[in-house]
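Hi all, long-time lurker, first post. I run a small reading group and we've been trying to get comfortable going from sequence to structure in the token notation. Rather than ask abstract questions, I figured I'd post a concrete chain and ask someone more experienced to write out its structure so we can walk through it together at our next meeting. Sequence below, copied exactly:
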Amino acid sequence: MLRFTKKTEYALLSLQYIASKDGMLVSAKEIAESIGISFEIIAKVLHLLGRSGITQSIQGAQGGYLLQRSPSMISL
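-- Answer (accepted) --
Happy to help. Here is the structure in token form:
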């Protein structure tokens, strides 16, 4: 049986949520509220996903996160 760390689980849940929004910008606050996890943890996870080239962050008042690739191109 596979076991994931909490950060990995949060990353997968975040990616699933972002992918469900079909290319719309999604804020870290929105993700945190939808998953029920603290904003600080989601922000750290999204930062790591961005450094890995999986997500892209858009700065500013209307900013948020997008997937860098098609969801079908992202695998474990």
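A couple of things your group might point at:
DSSP finds three helices and two strands in the chain.
The chain has a mean pLDDT of 92.
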